[in-house]
């Protein structure tokens, strides 16, 4: 029987896990339920504490994974059913259609240019990034192919301008589409890569071990927490990350949503929503937010040293190698750190500036601060798809939604199901280097399990 | 034998992506007229399965032995074309990739004629280089299955067991009489004590190690010498005391030497008053049930941490809370207070904090710049502390003061560093190969790093790192070899003056020297950055696929016509070319003056190359490398930056305006930066 390993989640943890296994000589299925591998790191601008450019260091690894003969990448793919038989896993995968023939698409982008309809990009949230109805997840995406928004079929986006002419045929029945502009653009290029009639594909694989690397999610502030839902210029730190990214929707210009003007006074609020009940905020310390904000202030100052940057925080988490030095660098560059408890935000309806009311923890005084852009460090939470996956894998989640280890002390990264292991953000809030360490460890455990499970 | 060079040029339309701007038939015609070109063909989609097989047929039919592909970008498509030519019987190192989509059609969309001229130039440069290409091949070095693990703490033991479980041999060397390291001194390792007595965890692990048939344990032994590199290390071990030393041969090494407490001698009365102890000493006391009748314990965190010279100790908050809970559990009526600056407790550690508060442990925050003072009054210990949140100073009586101190690497680090030719920071923690993506490795292949030898970390993290390190060293042991891509350095000793620059500067320790200081490249370890070649004063180092000759040929081809309006750009394959590609994908339009030459690393660009361009009349030269601190060869861009400075003064002496030599450090996401630089250069140099 098969000697393969299944890695679920193609972020930096999954990529590293897969690469180790493949180099060892064992076959890997690397499955991600989004259109490209890369995970959170592909969205980041720089990485603390060195300020290495995120995609610069991740993309070469993505290409390596793509080119490795032992690795099969399956994107847009969900793990639907897992059955353990004689120590091996029979896995059923479902690949949702991208409505694109991956073999034929060369990622040239002609269809993207032809598509007249832009919709908000989920990745960018409030800062107003847009993507077309047919789009590439990001320029370095692996596989480097586009996908068509499922909402854009059956002529449903015709009103918005996506298709021309009339058509009453069901897309799934029709093998050629004379009306969709993306299809026409592709044909003009001499290709027939866009296939609106594509349906889900089922696949059965047998593997001996499984590694769960489903990662983390950035928490969205709930409701009007510190003005998030009501004021345009209150954004999250994940959105700010996109704002300062040269590859992001503003080409790296740090401009605020209300008027697209460069923000000259920016404040970060740490632990935004911390301590609030689940569903209202992030009840625990997410460990990496202090360094994320520190990074963002340093980069902001690099863009323009004149920008006034203030971080409102309580406990500074500078726990890793080089982290404290990184914080000191920010301070040396003129970033103002204030130990404070912010409690209210008001917007000036004319200037759209924000006034923050806070208690200065050192002086005990109530103070105010006016800024042009307010960034909420709203925390790192578990991936919401974990629940479904846990059920399929028969694993347990902890009360925060992260996968539970069998025994963190004696059996780290193992789960209660022999042969299933964890790494990266699937275990809790974590940074990149720690994810990479766990990925190597999980790869080792999975390979050891493969050795034990005799065919 | 003089080989008959037969070059095939394949120019891609990329649908209308290239052909919509560039006049491809014109470029193909032009290519046909170039020296050595026996065939030029236009492909609508060169990367399609159909065209690839046509390409293979053409290669065979026309006995083509050098291939130039002019299409998108090598960063994504080179592997595909390499495979294709290989299958057609052409050595893949005889392929040259020319980027006319990202560097031409997508960035000069409004100027089809100029774009076509530029595409021709790029093809000409590619052909010039292709004519000089030489075969290369992957280089292998055999690796056997013996692994040396230095340090027998939790990380080292985890590594040893994982190596051994695969049937490989693990040799575990521990300088103490007993395996276990720091864990031997601890009482519990987390706040839910009864689940985690340290002794039980460490003993069961050590027992497994001792019982494993594939692990050889040397305790009470130290490392005398290590020589060699992956696949053939010769290690001399010497038992502490009188025993005589012996040699073993291993293929890989794991460094797991752990850490030690930095004892706060002379601070907070430590060393003067026995009632002032460190966390580790407290742990030992707890383990030995030696804490008696305490009424008031004061714990001071961040001792010697988070100051000008040292960062966060990483585990102090966790340790202080854990031990405070142990004390409070044993001595219910005692007052236990933790004086802290920041509390760094994450996820489940948060539970410990809750528990500590619940059972009455008090927390008091002091300012970063105003540490508590420990003094004696009438023989009683007093801790004076300013409470930041209350804004008032307090005097706390104590019969035990516990200092949560910083850590440093093991005292043997200095010695081991020299033996393995690796580096460490000021505190004796080893420096990993890449902070983000190489946390378990050193730059040299075959040596892995784990546990607190890298930085202070928890028990769990050490075990994970040990397992991860085992993974890293197991890959070459399982495969039986390490392999390097054929792009490697080659030294011609005929001109060598034994100056030692090459082997001293090699970031990968891939150059060894014999007794006469003659360098030799260990090809399997070479990553091909070319730093040594560019720095060699005698020009006796060549880089396969990026030789001086080949690069110069590209420069010459580029500058054959109209040199005074051209910019020669040397761009590194990784980030700078990524930035160029990003500008292309984003369709950023910029002036067409640059002719880019790809090198693996900006450190490959020698003074001679830069000057050659000026000698031939180039309007400007640009060197583009990775943005600091990113570099795919660790510090190549730093070396390049230094060299550019030297080149500028040389240029000035030679009568050139040094301001015509530019450099940018560009991330792979930063298309705007590359495009902007192009515009700026053209403006500053007054080009058309
Ligand atoms: C704003 C922000 C800034 C950050 N900055 C830094 C920084 O500067 N330095 C640093 O070290 N760290 C930083 N981090 C943390 C870093 O992003 C994470 O440590 C890292 O991305 C974790 O990698 P991962 O592979 O575990 O998870 P992810 O990157 O989240 O990847 C998980 C992957 O799994 C896929 N997936 C999820 N569920 C399923 C499923 N059921 N089936 C199939 N696929 C699935 C996802 O689509 C995704 O591709 C930052 C995080 C944020 C939010």
How many separate helices of chain A? 9
The Rg value of chain A, from CA coordinates, equals 23 Å
Main β sheet profile of chain B: 5 strands, parallel
Number of domains of chain B: 5
- For the termini of chain A, the CA-CA separation is 6 Å
Beta-strand content estimate of chain A:
15-25%
CATH class of the largest domain in chain B: Alpha Beta
Tally of DSSP helical segments of chain B: 19
Q: Give the cofactors and ligands.
A: flavin-adenine dinucleotide
Number of strands of chain A: 23
- Low-pLDDT windows of residues of chain A: none
At CATH's second level, what is the architecture of the largest domain in chain B?
3-Layer(bba) Sandwich
Strand order of the largest sheet of chain A: 15-21-16-17-18-19-20
**Arithmetic mean of pLDDT of chain B:** 94
Assembly state here?
heterodimer
User: Low-confidence parts of chain B lasting 5 or more residues at pLDDT below 50?
Assistant: none
Give the CATH class of the largest domain in chain A.
Alpha Beta
CATH domain fold name of the largest domain in chain B:
FAD/NAD(P)-binding domain
Find the count of extended strands of chain B (DSSP E, 2+ residues): 32
Strand content of chain B: 15-25%
């Amino acid at each position: 029987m098969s000697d393969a390993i299944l890695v679920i989640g193609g972020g930096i943890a999954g990529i590293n896990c897969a690469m180790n296994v493949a180099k060892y000589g064992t076959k890997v299925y690397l499955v991600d339920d989004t259109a490209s591998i890369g995970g959170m790191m592909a969205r980041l601008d720089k990485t603390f504490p060195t300020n290495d450019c995120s995609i610069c260091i991740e993309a070469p690894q993505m290409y390596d994974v793509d080119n490795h003969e032992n690795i099969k990448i399956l994107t847009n793919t969900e793990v639907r059913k897992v059955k353990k038989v004689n120590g091996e896993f029979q896995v059923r995968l479902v690949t949702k259609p991208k409505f694109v023939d991956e073999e034929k698409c060369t990622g040239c982008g002609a269809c993207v240019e032809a598509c007249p309809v832009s919709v908000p990009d989920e990745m960018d949230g409030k800062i107003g990034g847009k993507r077309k109805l047919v789009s590439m997840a990001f320029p370095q995406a692996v596989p480097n192919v586009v996908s068509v928004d499922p909402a854009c079929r059956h002529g449903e986006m015709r009103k918005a301008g996506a298709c021309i002419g009339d058509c009453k045929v069901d897309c799934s029945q029709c093998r050629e589409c004379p009306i969709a502009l993306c299809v026409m653009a592709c044909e003009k290029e001499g290709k027939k890569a866009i296939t609106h009639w594509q349906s889900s594909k089922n696949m059965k694989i047998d593997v001996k071990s499984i590694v769960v690397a489903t990662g983390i999610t950035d928490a969205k502030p709930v409701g009007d927490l510190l003005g998030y839902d009501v004021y345009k210029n209150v954004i999250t730190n994940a959105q700010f990350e996109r704002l300062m990214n040269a590859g992001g929707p503003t080409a790296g210009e740090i401009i605020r949503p209300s008027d697209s003007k460069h923000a000259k006074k920016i404040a970060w609020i740490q632990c935004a929503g911390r301590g609030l009940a689940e569903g209202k905020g992030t009840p625990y310390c997410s460990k990496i937010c202090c360094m994320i904000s520190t990074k963002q202030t340093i980069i902001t100052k690099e863009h323009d040293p004149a920008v006034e940057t203030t971080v409102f925080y309580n406990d500074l988490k500078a726990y890793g190698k080089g982290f404290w030095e990184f914080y000191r660098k920010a301070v040396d560059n003129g970033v103002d750190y204030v130990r404070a408890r912010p409690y209210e935000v008001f917007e000036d309806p004319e200037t759209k500036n924000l006034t923050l009311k806070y208690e200065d923890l050192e002086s005990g005084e109530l103070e105010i601060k006016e800024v042009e852009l307010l960034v909420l460090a709203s925390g790192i939470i578990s991936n919401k798809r974990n629940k479904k996956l846990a059920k399929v894998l028969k694993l347990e989640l902890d009360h925060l939604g992260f996968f539970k280890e069998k025994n963190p002390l004696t059996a780290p990264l193992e789960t209660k199901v022999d042969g299933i292991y964890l790494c990266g953000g699937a275990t809790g809030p974590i940074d990149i280097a720690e994810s990479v360490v766990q990925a190597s460890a999980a790869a080792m455990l999975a390979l050891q399990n493969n050795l034990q499970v005799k065919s | 034998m003089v080989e008959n060079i037969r070059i095939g040029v394949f120019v891609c339309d990329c649908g209308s992506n290239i052909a919509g701007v560039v006049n491809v038939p014109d470029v193909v015609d032009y290519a046909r007229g170039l020296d050595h070109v026996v065939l030029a063909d236009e492909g609508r989609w060169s990367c399609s399965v159909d065209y690839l097989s046509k390409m293979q047929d053409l290669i065979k039919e026309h006995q083509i032995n050098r291939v130039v592909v002019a299409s998108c970008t090598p960063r994504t498509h080179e592997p595909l074309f390499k495979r294709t030519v290989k299958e057609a019987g052409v050595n893949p190192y005889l392929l040259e990739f020319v980027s006319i989509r990202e560097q031409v059609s997508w960035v000069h969309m409004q100027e089809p004629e100029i774009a076509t001229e530029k595409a021709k130039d790029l093809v000409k440069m590619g052909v010039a280089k292709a004519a000089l290409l030489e075969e290369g091949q992957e280089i292998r070095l055999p690796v056997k299955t013996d692994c040396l693990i230095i340090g027998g703490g939790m990380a080292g033991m985890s590594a040893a067991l994982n190596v051994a479980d695969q049937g490989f041999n693990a040799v575990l060397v521990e300088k103490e009489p007993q395996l276990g390291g720091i864990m031997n001194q601890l009482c519990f390792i987390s706040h839910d004590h009864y689940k985690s007595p340290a002794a039980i965890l460490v003993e069961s692990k050590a027992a497994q190690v001792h019982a494993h048939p594939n692990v050889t344990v040397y305790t009470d032994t130290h490392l005398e010498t290590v020589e060699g590199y992956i696949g053939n290390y010769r290690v001399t071990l010497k038992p502490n005391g009188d025993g005589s030393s012996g040699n073993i041969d291993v293929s890989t090494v794991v460094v797991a030497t752990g850490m030690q407490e930095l004892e706060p001698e002379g601070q907070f009365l430590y060393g003067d008053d026995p009632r002032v102890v460190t966390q580790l000493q407290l742990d030992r006391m707890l383990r030995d049930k030696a804490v008696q009748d305490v009424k008031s314990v004061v714990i001071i965190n961040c001792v010697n941490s988070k100051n000008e010279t040292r960062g966060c100790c990483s585990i102090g908050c966790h340790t202080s809370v854990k031990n405070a809970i142990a004390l409070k559990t044993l001595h219910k009526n005692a007052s236990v207070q933790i004086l802290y600056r920041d509390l760094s407790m994450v996820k489940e550690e948060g539970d410990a904090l809750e528990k500590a508060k619940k059972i009455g442990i008090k927390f008091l925050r002091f300012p970063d710049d105003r540490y508590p003072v420990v003094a004696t009054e009438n023989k009683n210990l007093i801790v004076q502390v300013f409470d930041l949140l209350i804004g008032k100073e307090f005097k706390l009586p104590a019969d035990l003061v516990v200092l949560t101190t910083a850590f440093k690497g093991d005292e043997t680090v200095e010695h081991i560093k020299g033996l393995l030719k690796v580096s460490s920071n000021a505190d004796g923690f080893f420096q990993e190969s890449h902070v983000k993506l190489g946390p378990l490795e050193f730059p040299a292949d075959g040596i892995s790093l784990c546990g607190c030898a890298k930085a202070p970390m928890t028990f769990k993290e050490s075990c994970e790192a040990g397992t991860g390190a085992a993974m890293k060293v197991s890959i070459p042991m399982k495969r039986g070899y390490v392999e390097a891509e054929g792009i490697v350095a080659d030294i011609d000793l005929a001109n060598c003056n034994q100056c030692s620059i090459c082997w001293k500067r090699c970031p990968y320790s891939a150059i060894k020297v014999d007794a006469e200081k003659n360098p030799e490249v260990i090809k399997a370890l070479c990553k091909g950055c070319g730093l040594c070649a560019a720095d060699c004063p005698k020009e006796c180092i060549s880089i396969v696929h990026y030789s001086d000759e080949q690069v110069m040929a590209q420069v010459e081809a580029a500058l054959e016509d109209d040199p005074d309006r051209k910019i020669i750009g040397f761009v590194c394959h990784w980030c700078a070319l990524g930035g160029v590609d990003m500008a292309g994908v984003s369709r950023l339009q910029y002036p067409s003056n640059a002719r880019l030459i790809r090198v693996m690393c900006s450190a490959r660009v020698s003074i001679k190359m830069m000057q050659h361009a000026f000698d031939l009349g180039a309007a400007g030269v640009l060197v583009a490398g990775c943005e600091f601190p990113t570099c795919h060869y660790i510090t190549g861009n730093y070396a390049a930056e230094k060299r550019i400075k030297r080149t500028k003064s040389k240029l000035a002496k030679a009568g050139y305006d040094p301001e015509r030599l530019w450099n940018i450090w560009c991330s792979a996401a930063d298309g705007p930066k590359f495009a902007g630089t192009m515009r700026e250069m053209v403006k500053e140099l007054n080009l058309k």
